[in-house]
Write a structure and sequence with these properties.
Elements: E1 3-8, H1 15-28, E2 33-37, H2 40-48, H3 58-75, H4 77-88, E3 90-93, E4 96-99, E5 107-111, H5 115-124, E6 128-134, H6 143-146, E7 155-158, H7 163-195
Parallel strand pairs: 1-5, 1-6, 2-5, 6-7
Antiparallel strand pairs: 3-4
Length: 196
């Protein structure tokens, strides 16, 4: 089973920058990482209608969060979409279906804002690590941002200094993931050796 790492933080906390650094570090060690967001299904709907949310303005964030909330209330679509990606290795991007081999992915970085949704993922999947990227501000643009700090994360990344410091933290974090992954592989090999 691949490792699921849930990333959280308020808008503008530096989640994208941190994740990009982590992905770069892990790719250099031949790890395959996939990044997805709990709001990506809503993002695809808006994109299909010509609405560009990539600028991440406050207006974009509110629209995206509102549509995602409606999709949750309608049929739990964002959660089901994420689980389908994690379990089956594909999602439907409107006109452009994308598939990957779930067995080839080592780590999924999943952006999730709401603490209750984070808990749902932790009840469904065994190996979940939760990470908060915190830039020292409480930039709450959406209702979902308000709950970001109401959760006990496994790891907190402080983004209160310069980019070099954030990059260093990403490198340390990537090394911790690799070390944990190697320990699990050794344990699995020992169990298989004892059973075989």
């Amino acid at each position: 089973m691949k490792r699921l790492i849930i990333i959280n933080g308020t808008g503008g906390a530096g989640k994208d920058t941190f994740c990009n650094y982590v992905i770069k570090c892990l790719n250099q060690k031949d790890y395959v990482i996939w990044r997805y967001s709990y709001v990506d299904f809503a993002r695809f709907i808006l994109s299909d209608k010509g609405i560009d949310t990539s600028k991440k303005t406050n207006k974009d964030r509110v629209l995206l969060a509102g549509l995602n909330k409606l999709l949750e209330e309608y049929d739990d679509i964002p959660f089901k979409d994420c689980c389908q990606l994690i379990n089956d290795g594909f999602f439907k991007d409107m006109d452009d279906p994308y598939e990957y081999n779930p067995e080839s992915v080592d780590i999924i970085l999943l952006d999730v804002r709401e603490p209750d949704v984070i808990e749902r993922f932790k009840t469904v999947y065994d190996d979940v690590l939760t990470v908060l990227v915190d830039n020292g501000t409480t930039n709450t643009v959406t209702k979902e941002d308000e709950g970001v700090f109401n959760y006990k994360y496994d790891r907190i990344i402080s983004n209160t200094r310069d980019l070099d410091f954030l990059k260093h933290q990403a490198e340390v974090f990537a090394d911790e993931i690799i070390d944990a992954s190697n320990v699990k592989r050794c344990r699995k090999n020992k169990r298989e050796g004892a059973n075989g």
